[in-house]
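Quality-control log, excerpt.
Job 1 of 2 completed; input and output follow.
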Amino acid sequence: MLRNLSILLLVCLLVGCSSNEGVSKKNEEASEKQTAEQALPQSKEEWQSTVNTSEWYEQTKSKFPVAAEQFVDFDGDKIPEYILGYSDQTNYGYIVGKYNRTNKAWENWSDLHYEYPIHNEIAFHGVLNGPDDKEILIASDFQPGVKTISHEVNLIKASDDNSRVILGFKAYAENREDITVNPTTNSFHLVGTEVNQTYVVKDNHLLANNEKILLETGLPIIHNEAFMKALNNSFTKTGISFMDTIGDGVQKNKAIAKEESFEGVLCKSYEDYSICTTFYDGNINNGPITHVLLFNFKEVTAKDISKAINQKVTIETNDFTDTIDQILYFATFTVDDIVFHAEFDGSTENALLKRISIQNTNEHYEF
């Protein structure tokens, strides 16, 4: 009996010791984390000092004439990024630096570069709150055009995967003074002879007169893996997004594209898809991608699509025998906030997919 108690006591001591070691290890890890956090700059002035004395900042300012700069926590990790807006005659854009906690140094994270035929100017107007503790910058660039002189208002945010900064939305105002930002209501207001509009930032979209305007995500147009697999179309391998121009899209597919037009839409076409634009300034590659057409599918049924996107694809029959002597079968469905218009060869769940049309409903563009 005494021997059994001794063994039990020994076991208890071992368990207790192991438990104490576990507590000690957790305390040590917590202490290390706290020390690492304390090592970060705590005030805006301290953060600014790390930027001003960094090699990244000095090199960037030596290359670009910076017109505006400030901290914005684009990715919501509580460590602010630093964005610089520059304009150099016909070149302008935004450069964003990120603080490397390991190296305790600022590094280039992301940038947006543009060209404009006439001198441009950059200005920052304020920061608003996005989803997941992310911050959004409202900026503008002065664009004197052929017909009008306007300021392009840019909503700059992180892509949904936090891999870069993107232009989430753009609109136009006549004067820089016509752009106001209100952090209290998380909104910005544009006023002028042709515009008087308040945009409220709400999660992943804007609210304007009760209209919901989705912000760009920066993700590929089709990024749902099950949907990509079901379509089995080469477009899904390109990573093309609605942030791309036609030229960007061409760079993502090394095959030779054929230039075509469909009812006023100019396209670059490949074996099983076309990327198109409704805007043309003499060079199709400069136009933003506004439409995508997918075709030449390999035995993909409505049932396959329904299973992949976890929603029933309902096909409607459209009788056009009195005009084009055809009966057409269409379905519309939404995946990741993108609307897909599909044509099938019949009305049943086993009907084969013939074509898909996708349009960027958020596109605003001016020349």
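Job 2 of 2 completed; input and output follow.
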Amino acid sequence: MTEESAPRWRRRALRWALTVLIVGLVGYFFAVALWDNWDAIAAEQLAFSPWWILATVVFALAVPLTGLLWGHMVRVLDTDPDGRVSVAEAIAVQCASWLLKYIPGQVGSVVNKVVWAGKKGVSRSLVLITFVYENVFLQFASIVPSALILLLSLGPEIFGENATLLVVPVLVLVPLAAVLYPPVFHRLVSIPARRALKREVPKEYFLSTGRTLAYIVGFLGPRALNGIGFVMIAATVSTVPPAQWLPFAAAYVLAGAIGILAFFVPSGLGVREAVIVLVLSQYIPVAEAIVISLLARLLSTVGDGLVALIYIGIRRTIPKEYRP
């Protein structure tokens, strides 16, 4: 073995070892989550409904749709025509980042995108900026419409009586709003970039106000799919008339957003289920609301299994050197 081939072999072995480790960790934590969620709902002895299959598929489709929006954003902002992100690449990268959430800390989601950017030849700074945009847009698309729907449906009392769970996360949007104003966001990014990278971040990497608003509207799509899937599930457990579809969907979407911001909320563990039960109990018995929240958690986990299948299928269509 030559001196040049030895380091190449070691790098390849290290890459394979890291891949096996990451896949193993994701698989382990996914299995634990699936088992725990099944254990929580098994005692209810619910009759199987075909709507569960459709709801699971709808949950899963929200992830590639988010990938399409993220990929479009990268293409719009990327000034290098040689580093264009294809639709398949955007979906595969998004699915991989989504599945890496099972590794505690969720750092893997952003690391996955940054590492892939290096393979593809896309600016890592651009990918980091679009990652921030993506998550801020998802939070706005989750919290603002949901809060308005619940405010109109249940009145301000629901927020006043549950300020810790519902009001504090809404207030978190205030500092996040800085991202929506290009000059402020550019300045926030440029200061650490100058110190760490010794260079300026191009202004072309930031969305205009008009495009920012357009993407916020676009990111309503994945959240709408989440809400639709949840209403399907709820209707198999309780009677949910059409007048309650929007509040039920809003409860689930808002619960997901608050769960992501759980470090701002005391007793963050199980905060999603707490928000769902809190809102749904205004319409149906608490016992039914609890069952719906647990069933939704189980089926969303199964949906992540479908996301893994989407990732495996689409990844095979991408050239090996660019596969995430």
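Post-run check on job 2. The longest helix spans residues 5-42.
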